[in-house]
Specification:
single chain; 515 residues; alpha/beta; 5-stranded antiparallel beta sheet; elongated; disordered C terminus
Amino acid sequence: MSDDLITFLDEEDEKNNHFDEIKNQIEPWIIGIIDDEPQVHDVTRLALKGTTIYDRPIKFVSAYSAKEGEELIQSTPDMALVLLDVVMETDDAGLQLVDRIRNELGNQSLQIILRTGQAGYAPEEEVIIRYEINSYKTKNELTRSKLFTTIATGLRSYQQLQVIEKSRNGLRAVIDSSATLMRERSVFEFSQGVLNQIDALFDLSADSLFCVSQRPAKGPFSIVNEKEGYFIVAANDKYQKYFGQNIEHLHGELPIVEQVMECLKNKTNQFHDDFSILYLSTPSGWEGVITAENSSNLQLADQEILQIFCMNVALGLENAKFFTYLNKAAFNDELTGLYNRAGLIDEGQRFVRKQNADCSIFILDIDYFHHVVTSMGYEFGSEILLKMASLITQVFGDDAVLSRLHSDVFAVLAKDKNIEANEVALRCSRPLMVEQQSIRMGMTVGQSIVKFDQNIDIAKSLKQAELALNVAKESKRGAGETFNESYEVESRNSMALLSDLRLGLDNNGSLNKSN
């Protein structure tokens, strides 16, 4: 078929482009020409040769039929705009291609400018309403200036759609990454997840670290009294050797320390040519910073998306911090840092399975501890408990699970089942230096054996050790006793007798009332 060629009424002479080398380094706009007339391709290229639109050059790609055009669009996903002829293989080949682009290929951002040499065949209003196109032009009306204007307008629309899509994808990534981060319960797991997510979200390959304050500005008393400082809780390979250290103590080793402290002081993000620092603050007053070298994308990123990401990170950090605190409170003794009863039962099962053998459990009771507290005060008593915890740790080393059950009672789960309770009592009854005073505290010990089988019952073994402890305390303070099954029989008999006595008292009381 034959179409009228584009007539350029105000064609300008071709000008030499002195900036070709510079333009070749800039990512060009890719514009497709789909038309079955080769002359149309040539004239279009000639008209816009050397043209720069929005500081980017133009690169044309061509197809000479609707079928070729569809293949071209599929193989060129970053095509911004297409100049599409209506009449090619068939009278409506261009219109059918529009339908496939939008509905089958799902490409909604590509700007489609229909061009036809037979305007009367397809009325402009009908085409624009029925098909998702961005402009409809007859070939003889497209002078160079009008062609430039049409393409520039289309590229601006494409650019705006790309920004919207990028924002949408960014928000989706923020939501997805937030959901992933919220699943991380440990502060360390959460923090490492943040570094991974920020790399993925903002397309970074940055050398990063994450440091967080140890205590919040406001919160539970036990947390507020944690040690001060900002400790590195996550780092990539370059900074891994600094993991767990106070960043304030790394002056001279880490050049970025001064900028981190300035960021914390000013409580604002910092963007530099070679690195960026993001400031985080949680509702309870924990503070943190994420540093990222080679991170120019952060400065160029949509600041609203970056702000949303930082907000989600701050909330996730608070959740992880409180979860860590609650988990520690649930399984650890606040004073000594040893396990409590729940922690001993939980960790004890793993310990016995790891040993793959029977283990010993000891309950250690400090003799006459309440007399010391009564005479010397609770603070002195707390110092004794801390010293005793340290002593028991020295005696058993790393081959045991240590806990403080309550008040002055400790428990130890040890892998050596041959050690006797009397020996433990002797080894743990040493002089302690408390407030420049030497004081010797005796220990009474109860012992039982934890059987290694399918149902490891730490709680049952604890009760058995407690029965042995009671027998030891009744017979001789400062000694030890190993559980014997007869203790359970005696305990049940004692409980039954006590129950009978209580029942008898209740019955007598009822009889007296009735009389």
